[in-house]
């Protein structure tokens, strides 16, 4: 018996219509479209062909809710410490690209949010939304306590950031204190004796980088490095760097920047003042973003392997979604010596 043919302009709107057309129950259609082996192969193929012919696409969100899986991972950038910073920041763009690639390989989509934590329960609202199978946080910002509170009851969450002894939440990141020490040791090996740190210290990662720089100075018998607040927001960073240089030039001979972006801006500001890098003042960065080897001069920096870290985050997250334990991962930093130091 031949199957009825719908007019060319007609489209199937729901599973019930497709079931009537195929002469089967709606449950059989649902299972066939999900490629469930409980439905005979020839029946599955016939139903799938009918769906394609008549332009039917099942409601994926409804299906995901039925199986209690949304297929979405929340990727959240909390900016309590730096409200003017944008997702276009080179660090965010780099790590987001690697995370998106890894999630896609697992068959998941991502829901990206830039969050200004104006309410104490900002993270609870995200994890309790029912929209997500898990959450990846890009940075701890100044929200360490909030992250710890939620991690105590919500397992499928992994954070890019630092690690403190005894912390509850799973974090993936570099040993920032060692990285800061490597930068300081490089500057000291270049002959620097009066160091400065361009960066603020309101986040765990940046605080640790400054502490590592202080460790290197103390080991060499040098004075504690100056710490000069330099924000990561691109609209205020250049003016802050210029003001710092106008204040401390002549009293420092080496600069460790909290990030590659700050380092690049600092090198530019020094060039504007006819100060040679590294001849007059060596400069180090932190991150080893792709542009670090493309600037002139090329940046000496501390590498944190962002690609490896992003994949480690995704691997840990899916382990936690599956109910397994996934401990924090602390990667080793590497000093990449280039032109600026």
Characterization of the model:
It is a single chain. This protein is of the alpha/beta class. The chain contains 12 helices and 12 strands. It has helices at residues 15-22, 26-33, 41-53, 60-66, 90-105, 122-127, 144-151, 176-189, 204-219, 237-248, 260-272, 306-321; strands at residues 72-78, 109-115, 134-138, 157-160, 170-174, 195-198, 226-228, 254-257, 283-287, 300-303, 329-331, 334-336. The strands form 2 sheets. Strands 2-1-3-4-5-11 form a 6-stranded parallel beta sheet. Helix 9 links the parallel strand 6 and strand 7. The radius of gyration is 26 Å and the shape is elongated. The chain starts with 14 loop residues before the first helix and ends in a 5-residue tail after the last strand. The model has no long low-confidence stretch (mean pLDDT 89).
Q: How many DSSP H or I helices?
A: 12
The coarse overall form would be elongated
Which percent range fits the helix content? 40-55%
Largest sheet features: 6 strands, parallel
Q: Count the E strands.
A: 12
Low-confidence spans: pLDDT under 50, at least 5 residues?
none
Task: Using the CA coordinates, give the radius of gyration.
Answer: 26 Å
Could you tell me how far the N terminus lies from the C terminus, measured between alpha carbons in angstroms? 81 Å
**What's the arrangement of strands in the largest beta sheet?**
2-1-3-4-5-11
- Average pLDDT taken over every residue: 89
Helix/strand-derived category reads alpha/beta
Strand content: 15-25%
SSE order, one letter for each helix or strand: HHHHEHEHEHEEHEHEHEHEEHEE
């Amino acid at each position: 018996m031949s199957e009825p043919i719908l007019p060319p302009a007609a489209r199937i709107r729901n599973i019930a219509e497709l079931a009537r057309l195929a002469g089967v129950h709606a449950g059989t259609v649902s299972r066939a479209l999900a490629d469930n082996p409980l439905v005979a192969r020839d029946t599955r193929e016939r139903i799938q062909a009918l769906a394609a012919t008549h332009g039917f696409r099942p409601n994926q969100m409804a299906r995901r809710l039925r199986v209690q899986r949304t297929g979405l991972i929340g990727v959240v950038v909390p900016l309590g410490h730096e409200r003017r910073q944008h997702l276009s920041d080179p660090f965010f763009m780099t790590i987001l690209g690697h995370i998106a690639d890894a999630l896609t390989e697992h068959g998941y989509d991502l829901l990206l949010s830039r969050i200004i934590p104006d309410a104490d329960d900002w993270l609870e609202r995200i994890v309790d939304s029912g929209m997500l199978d898990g959450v990846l946080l890009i940075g701890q910002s100044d929200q360490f306590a909030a992250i710890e509170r939620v991690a105590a009851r919500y397992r499928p969450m992994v954070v890019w950031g630092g690690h403190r002894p005894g912390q509850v939440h799973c974090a993936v990141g570099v040993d920032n204190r060692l990285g800061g020490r490597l930068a300081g040791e490089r500057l000291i090996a270049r002959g620097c004796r009066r160091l400065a740190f361009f960066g603020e210290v309101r986040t765990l990662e940046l605080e640790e980088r400054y502490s590592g720089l202080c460790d290197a100075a103390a080991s060499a018998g040098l004075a504690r490095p100056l710490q000069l607040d330099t924000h990561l927001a691109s609209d205020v960073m250049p003016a802050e760097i210029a003001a710092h240089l106008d204040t401390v030039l002549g009293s420092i001979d080496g600069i460790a920047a909290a990030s590659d972006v700050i380092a690049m801006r600092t090198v530019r500001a020094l060039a504007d003042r006819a100060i040679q890098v590294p001849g007059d003042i060596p400069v180090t960065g932190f991150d080893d973003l792709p542009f670090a080897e493309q600037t002139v001069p090329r940046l000496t920096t501390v590498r944190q392997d962002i690609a490896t870290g992003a994949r480690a985050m995704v691997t840990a997250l899916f382990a936690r979604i599956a109910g397994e334990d996934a401990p924090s991962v602390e990667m080793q930093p590497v000093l990449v010596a280039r032109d600026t130091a």
